[in-house]
Amino acid sequence: MFAKSLFYILFLLLSLKNTYAETAGETKSIKSPSGNILTIVSSEEWKNIDKGIDFKIIKFKRGDGIIAFKLLRIDPQSVVIKVIYNRSSNVKSITEKEGAIAAINGSFFDVNGEPLGLLISDGKTINRRIATHPLYSGIFYVKDSIPHIVYRDDFAADGVTQALQVGPVLIADGKDTDGLKDTNSIHYRSGIATDGLNRVIIYATDTNYNGLSFYEIRQIMRLPDINCTHVLNLDGGGSTQMFVTTPSFSDYTAGKSNIPVAIGFYPHTKKSQP
User: Fold this and answer.
1) Total structural domains within the chain
2) 190 and 223 within one domain
3) In whole angstroms, what is the distance from residue 175 CA to residue 118 CA?
4) pLDDT single digits (tens) 77-133
């Protein structure tokens, strides 16, 4: 009887171990339709770096290449969010000059630094034209100090103080958006997202390493400790850049070129909405 009971216990333990291994495996690697396998090498816990602001890095491996993915999570009740138009600058200069906590590159622009799509900064409309190209499918905006990500067709400008048009929208209401092309193309990426608690998450691939595909970004932003419901791609490639600085923490992902549009995050004591 004892031997039979011991066998049963061992069987249960082995079953639980196998179940755990399968569950863990689902979150430790991402396999794309192209056959690429992205393996999580390390994933930091969210680290609180200031009031309402958390930071984390996830490192991945694809083949022989390493990808470092940086995320900043912001409680909009603790900061002021501003769209910045500065013709030609970089996020480090913008952050240091304006007393911001963080900044990330923003929307697409032409060779003269003019924004290619809707742009509103501090209540001033820089470009009122809403672009109709399929790539420019989303708008990030702030109204009554609350951040939103919507499809361009769902945007209403009344009362909006900050807005930029960019894209594509990768996730909307927790679901993948339809009709995206080149979802497996690998580039440097940056983006802005919101989670179920309406916190803002900005992210960027470290430009000292390799990039990611839209397909991979979607899977990463659904990981349990990120869990975003809306994800909007920002102008990536050589424009990808993010800078974070607090009294106890600093991190810089440098871009390959200057940018005219950025999104800045400010302490309430230093910046206020118009």
Assistant:
1) 2
2) yes
3) 25
4) 999 999 999 877 899 999 998 899 999 999 999 888 888 999 999 999 999 999 999
